[in-house]
Every structure is written in structure tokens, then in C-alpha cells.
Amino acid sequence: MFTSVFSNLCLVVFLLSIQSTFTLLCFDCNNCTNIQSCQCRDVFETNRTDMYCILLRETLSNGVNIEIHAFPINRTKYYIDDTHYISVVEEIIYNDTTQIWSSLSKSITYGCPTDLCNRDDLLKELPSNGLSLMLPSEWLNENLLRKEEGDPALCRNCYEEQVCGNSPDTINITACPRSECKGSCSASETFKNAETTPFCYASLCSDDTAFDPKGKLPQVTITAIYYINKNQFEILEIDLVCNADTCSSLNLFEDIKNKLQKDLNNIRPFLPNHINSIYSTSIFFLIMILILQNFILY
Prior knowledge:
Structural class: alpha+beta
């Protein structure tokens, strides 16, 4: 009897390994609106080479958006070379009343390429403050704030389209003439999914001060990704709203990369040791259930 049970168990494990080589199982739900009470039991089977699983929590003006599903590998706006990651969109914003900078998490996504890795209970583990991305207040004050009321910002204007290059050093921003801007300057640097010119720069002055004489409040929006397997943090996009005379300078983007502060402690539940422990426990219980079922049959 034991030999028969063992043979059946080996067959089941073999079949599971065959399936996991070609297909991927992801939880797939579109009716979760509450992080604490979300229960996703629907499963979607897809091709492992085309899709991966995601959990997403996005902060909206009227609540929270939750997504649990499979996601196409080549559908992302940015170049992603490993589908096991945590990505965030966070804002560093200035409060004109308190004159204090603060960090706000707009969205956080967990991507993973293993069967049923986007479990609903992990929604509670996604940190509400993301990676707590922040820059020194002194640097923000010096480089983004208008020195005196009425002072113009110096802003490059790319009216036609973005300026792209193979790296940030090869971007030729002289194609975007610099001029004084009475409102606010908006500039961005993006690492896109492109084969020859992945780095793109854009900048534009908004001189519409009819409703906001001081211009828009300065802020930095950062889209970043932490590759879990590689233990590597990368910035995918930086968007600036700036009112200073250093606006739209490429040096600002380099400074942000060098001075950016982050906190990875809150994503520990998604790091390999923790996830592997949970996965190993699940496999153990699955094997035990199969063994018990075979004993009952005999």
C-alpha cells in the first residue's frame, strides 16, 4: 500500500511540475473594494511566458482602487526586466501654508511570476506609505521654490515632443530653448521600454496664472521599482513642478537620484525568505492532504 501511495504522490508532483513549467495560475478578482475584507478565490490560468500576477493598491480622490489579476509582460509603460518586483508612484509635495514637504504614496504594485502568488491576504502587507520616498527639505527649498514672489522660473520648452537618447548623458536638451516662466515649469525624465532611445526628457512652461498667480505648488513625483530577486532599486520616471531659476536642468534629475531617501523595511513580507517560507508550508500541507486521501482510499 505504501508503495502505491508513494507512486501516486510522485505522479501528482510530476504533473504539477509539468503544469507550472508552461502555465501560470493567478488570482483574478474585480470586486474587491476593501483591503481588510477582500476575499479573492477566482483563479485565472495563463501562459507563463506572456503574463505574470499582480496586486495593486491605488489611492484615489474618492477612495482606494484594488486590482488582483494577471498582467501582460510587454504591456508596461516602462522597461521591466524581472517580473518579481514592488513598484510605486509617490509624490513629494509642498504645503504652502505650513511650508513643510511631505511624502504621499499614490500607488503600489506587487508583481510575481509564481502560481497564486498574488493572494488577497498580501494586500494588507502592502505598505500604505509605499517606500517612503523623500528628499532633504533643504535641497527641495533651494532647487524648487521661488526665491521671491514674482520671480520667474527658468524653464526649457519642448513644444513638439520629448527629447530622447541612449542614456541621460546623451540627451540633447539644447533643442528645448530656455526662457523665463511666470508660472510653473513642468519637467520629466523617463526610462521607457524602447530599443534604441530609452531615456526621454520633456519640459514645458505653464504661464497661465489667471487662477493661480503664484503658479502650481512645487512637487516631485517619482515612479520607482524594487527588483526583489536582484535586491536592486531603480527610478523609472521623475516628474517635477518647479518655480526656481534652476528649473528643468538635467542636474536636478541627477541630484534627485543621488539624494533620494527610501525605506525598504515595510516590504519585508514580500522578500524571498518570507515568501519562500509561506510557499514551502503550502506545499507541505498539499502533500499531506494527498497522502491522507490515498490512505482513505485504501
